[in-house]
């Protein structure tokens, strides 16, 4: 079944030549990922037998938005399909080794991407964070978008999953009511990758950084930087280069845990109570 999907994917990418090699590739836990070499080219192909609606088309669209800024590299999207039981995404094959300059370039180029702005916050279509649906919409007001489409959406899912109950739910409700005390309303809607942890970038030829697996949105760039700090893996050279190009707001550290809260709620909903203590720590910091 997988090989049939891979053949379909290659045909969609315009490659009908013989397949020389297929081998599984590192590509996360959500999809089946493969390195495929044909007589014509090398590819990275992701497949998902039960992908949600528009799953790969949203990833392809996010990569195109980033590419259009001309600031930081992404793999070229060669083909995609969200066909039921045969969904795939075909990307150019990228390989390389990180150099001493890679994370400096990553910081500088990410800052350059963040200098690009949309007209509104959010996104015109619903996307995904991991496998979880991410409700969207376009908002003039960043605070409203972040409260209603990010935090509240995860709160409602957590209530449904029975991982946000009792005191945790009460504190979430209180936090949402007072969120404007820390999160700005009027801020530039930067182009954001949306899921930028250490596993969602890689080094390509010459050590050039590439962004992969976006959950694209327009929003506060500090939301992106806060997530890079949550699980680590980004060097001091990365942050220094970013700040040299685009200095952070002096109040960033006051709102950083509130931006990390979204990703902690996502992980709570995906993986359960192992992330509960970190969620509670943020809630206690802001609402007691």
Walkthrough of the structure:
- With 288 residues, the protein is α+β, with helices and mostly antiparallel strands.
- The protein has 9 helices and 13 strands.
- It has a 5-stranded antiparallel sheet, with helices on both faces. A two-stranded antiparallel ribbon has the order 6-9.
- Helix 3 packs parallel to helix 7 (236-245), helix 4 (142-160) runs parallel beside helix 8 (252-271) and helix 5 packs across helix 9.
- The longest helix is centred in the last third of the chain and has 20 residues, at 252-271.
- It is globular, with a radius of gyration of 20 Å.
- The N and C termini lie far apart (53 Å).
- The mean pLDDT is 96.
User: Helix/strand/pairing class, anyone?
Assistant: alpha+beta
Can you tell me the overall shape?
Answer: globular
Helix and strand sequence: HEEEHEEHEEEEHHEEEEHHHH
Instruction: Indicate the mean pLDDT.
Output: 96
Helix content: 40-55%
Taking the sheet with the most strands, its summary is: 5 strands, antiparallel
Separation, N- and C-terminal Cα atoms: 53 Å
Low-confidence stretches: none
Write the layout of secondary structure elements.
Layout: H1 2-12, E1 19-24, E2 32-38, E3 42-48, H2 55-68, E4 77-81, E5 87-92, H3 102-114, E6 121-123, E7 127-129, E8 132-134, E9 137-139, H4 142-160, H5 166-177, E10 190-192, E11 201-203, E12 209-211, E13 217-219, H6 221-230, H7 236-245, H8 252-271, H9 276-287
Antiparallel strand pairs: 1-2, 2-3, 3-5, 4-5, 6-9, 7-8, 10-13, 11-12
């Amino acid at each position: 079944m997988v090989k049939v999907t891979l053949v379909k994917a290659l045909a969609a990418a315009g490659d009908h030549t013989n397949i020389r090699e297929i081998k599984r590739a590192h590509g996360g836990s959500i999809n089946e990922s493969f390195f495929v070499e044909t007589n014509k080219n090398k590819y990275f192909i992701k497949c998902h037998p039960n992908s949600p609606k528009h799953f790969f088309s949203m990833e392809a669209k996010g990569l195109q938005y980033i590419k259009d800024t001309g600031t930081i590299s992404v793999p070229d999207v060669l083909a995609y399909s969200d066909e039921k039981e045969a969904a795939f995404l075909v990307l150019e094959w990228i390989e390389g080794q990180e150099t001493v300059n890679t994370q400096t370039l990553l910081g500088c180029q990410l800052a350059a991407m963040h200098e690009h702005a949309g007209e509104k916050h959010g996104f015109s279509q619903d996307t995904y964070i991991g496998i979880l649906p991410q409700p969207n919409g376009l908002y003039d007001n960043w605070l409203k978008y972040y409260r209603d489409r990010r935090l509240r959406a995860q709160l409602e899912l957590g209530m449904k999953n029975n991982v946000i109950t009792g005191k945790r739910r009460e504190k979430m409700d209180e936090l949402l009511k007072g969120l404007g005390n820390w999160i700005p309303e009027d801020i530039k809607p930067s182009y954001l990758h949306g899921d930028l942890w250490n596993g969602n970038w890689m080094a390509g030829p010459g050590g050039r950084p590439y962004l992969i697996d976006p959950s694209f949105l327009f929003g506060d760039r500090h939301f992106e930087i806060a997530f890079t700090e949550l699980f680590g893996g980004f060097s001091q050279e990365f942050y220094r280069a970013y700040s040299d190009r685009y200095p952070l707001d002096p109040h960033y550290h006051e709102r950083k845990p509130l931006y990390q809260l979204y990703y902690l709620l996502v992980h709570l909903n995906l993986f359960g109570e192992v992330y509960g203590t970190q969620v509670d720590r943020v809630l206690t910091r802001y609402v007691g």
